[in-house]
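= Tokenised fold =
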Amino acid sequence: MMNPAQLVRIATYTSVAVAVTLVLIKVVAWWQTDSVSILASLLDSTLDIAASVMIAVAVHIAQTPADKEHRFGHGKAEPLASLAQSVFIAGSAGYLLLYSIDRIFIPQPLQSPQTGLMFMLVSLILTLLLISFQRYVISQTQSSAIKADSLHYVSDVLANLLVILSLWLSHIQWLDPLLAIGIALWILYSAIHIAKEAGNQLLDRELPDEIRQQIQQIILDTPNVRGFNDLRSYQSGPNFFVQLDLELDDDLTLKQSHQIAEEVTQALQNAFENIDVMIHQEPVSLKNDPEHHTWGKA
């Protein structure tokens, strides 16, 4: 069975290959039909190539082991690439809006819509297959870069469906540019969503509540643990980072306290493959001390 790093790398290579294939298909479809909605989809797929290559490079950097200058690893290369990807996507949406509005005022009839319909159906099938594979990789790795890439391809599915609709109803000339505007707005929405998620990682936002609850339960289920406080967490690429104060009986020796902390760390590492845990042991008697400084609630 492949490890998460291998799965993410394969997903990035697959994304690039599919993006190139889709561009070739849509170039032919646009040349055959002169459809502005196909041009919209072609432009989006062209940006997919740049974005997918960027993601592949970012994943490679993110999986580079920690070194003396990057002691917490290189995981933030993934959200940084996702943020850059959102800028590309937003730019394509703006260009497409202007081009589509121009076509509304200067409509042009479509050529060979049946040929374009055939090519777009092939594009739709390829995109759905890629998304299915990406969803599997995300479920196994929680990669933010693959999430961003997959979200973009999900928007491609809607775009392809709208293009197919415009080709099917090709006798309605104003429908083609109108649907292209709809695609552009959806692309812009996707860009905002990607930028928000990437920004949360770059700003070290806490892990999702369901993951934090799982972490809390693992800590409390460890024998001899009396409680914890100041649980802090964040994600960097595929890696989780967790810090906490572990509340233990006052009369334990340093060696005993260390052993319990190691058991908590091991339990968390068994539950999450890429997790870095930092634990500070403290006497449980300090729990209700009003002068005991805390950084936040667990």
Notes: DSSP finds eight helices and three strands in the chain. The chain has two domains: 4-202, 209-286. The mean pLDDT is 79.
